[in-house]
Amino acid sequence: MIKNKLVQLTEHCSWDTEEESLSLKSCYVKLTVSQKYLLGLLVQNLNRPVHSIDIFNEVNHLPSKEYNLKSVRNLVSSLRKNVPTLNIINVYGGYYMLRKDNSSPNVEFKDDLYEILDQSINPTIITNPNEFDNHIIYANKAFIELFEYTFEEVVGQNCRFLHRDDTEQLALDEIRNAIYEKKSITVNLHNYTHSGGLIYNEVAVSPIFDKKTGKIKYYLGVYKDVTTIQRLMQHFKERL
Ligand SMILES: Cc1cc2nc3c(=O)[nH]c(=O)nc-3n(C[C@H](O)[C@H](O)[C@H](O)COP(=O)(O)O)c2cc1C
Fold first, then answer.
1. Could you tell me the distance, in angstroms and rounded to a whole number, from the CA of residue 159 to the centre of ligand 1?
2. Atom 7 of ligand 1 has which residue's CA nearest to it?
3. 3-state per-residue secondary structure call for the chain
4. pLDDT tens for each residue of 7-25
5. How far is it, in rounded angstroms, from Cα 23 to Cα 169?
6. Average pLDDT in the 212-228 region?
7. How is the chain split into domains, by residue range?
């Protein structure tokens, strides 16, 4: 028996098991009675192969008028045709399996992504290279705390405001080249807080591509505060 009345089959496809229709994005797909029984059996055995004989036994007793069951294969292909988004695969010849697509994160995880970024201890920003001057569109709490700015003060600015007049840094050329070559890079640079304090940062800059168009959609910047270790190294160098 299927315990839940509403079963999420794929990201955009849910099934109210008491209904003979599937909800697919914003439309409904009508199932035949045999298809409903077949789907119920496949859902009960999600990610596990079901033998053709078990499918036949499941539907054979049905006084179904709209579907004359000649073969299990025909029934499976009719369900596949009716709901192409379902991932029903043929295993070892005589078995069928409904595979839940684990490659796409579930809806709840996607909704939580913002919270995950915001509560991360790594200062993180996202910039938009398709808007004016590749400006910051998001900064997490750890970034705001590290640099002592408010969210409103950093959003809309290019990250260069962080280095102030400290322009003679090799790392800035390295970032410029990486942006030009559309590559990710990790650099060490000097940044400054709102009150003027020097921060030694290790910054990982990654272009985020739109998989469909291949164009860069965002840049992700993840910061590490390496001030303490840099100061210690300088201290030891001076004593040598
Ligand atoms: C995601 C990301 C993070 C960046 N972080 C910094 C940073 O922390 N400090 C900084 O001076 N520049 C940073 N930059 C680089 C500047 O935005 C800019 O590319 C750099 O100053 C060189 O370009 P410019 O000659 O236009 O100033 C970052 C760029 C990106 C895309």
1. 5
2. 159
3. CCCCCEEEEECCEEEECCCCEEEECCEEEECCHHHHHHHHHHHHCCCCCEEHHHHHHHHHCCCCCCCCCCCHHHHHHHHHHHCCCCCEEEECCCEEEECCCCCCCCHHHHHHHHHHHHCCCCCEEEEECCCHHHEEEEECHHHHHHHCCCHHHHCCCCHHHHCCCCCCCHHHHHHHHHHHHCCCEEEEEEEECCCCCEEEEEEEEEEEECCCCCCEEEEEEEEEECHHHHHHHHHHHHHC
4. 888 777 888 888 888 887 7
5. 56
6. 96
7. 6-98, 111-239
**Model pLDDT, residue 106:** 60
pTM of the model: 0.64
What is the spatial distance between Cα 32 and Cα 21, in angstroms, rounded to a whole number? Answer: 9
pLDDT band at 113 (very low <50, low <70, confident <90, very high): confident
pLDDT digits (tens, 9 = 90+) for 166-205: 999 999 999 999 999 999 999 999 999 999 999 999 999 9
Q: What is the CATH number of domain 111-239?
A: 3.30.450.20
Query: Ligand 1 centre from 18 Cα, in Å?
Result: 56
**Choices 1.10.10.10, 1.10.357.10, 2.40.50.140, 2.60.40.10: CATH for 6-98:** 1.10.10.10
Residue 160 alpha carbon to ligand 1 centre in Å: 5
